[in-house]
Write a structure and sequence with these properties.
This protein is 16% helix and 38% strand. A seven-stranded antiparallel sheet has the order 3-2-6-5-4-1-7. With 133 residues, it is an alpha+beta fold. The mean pLDDT is 89. The termini are close together. The chain is built from two helices and seven strands.
Length: 133
Amino acid sequence: AVVSTQSTGGLAADFGETTVAVGGVFRLREGKTKCHVMPGFSCTPLRTDEDINGWLRFYEMSAPLVHTSVFVSRDPGLDLRLEHSHCFSEHGDGGHYHFDTTPDTVWYEGYFNLAERIVRIDAPEETHLIGRD
């Protein structure tokens, strides 16, 4: 994801081994993005990135979109995704944000704040790196 990768990379470069997390909202004012929605729980195990990408439904979605988002500079051992963003709109588009698809016309506006602490709820007993783009 363009916004999230740049933000996560910038945090890691600036803070090194210190874990820093920010959360907030950003709005896609102009342009389009690639997002996915889950079609429901899979009846078969999803064991690879190919399995996940074949199961998810991907769409190009249009502005305006409002995104809730979190970026973490590094995982402090909590099995976190370094970024995660979901979006919604008044025109019916919404889902999990991946990246913008119109880099020449995209316009973002964001409002973020630093987290005081990171809490992981319901950490998995077993983990994997599948589906972490």
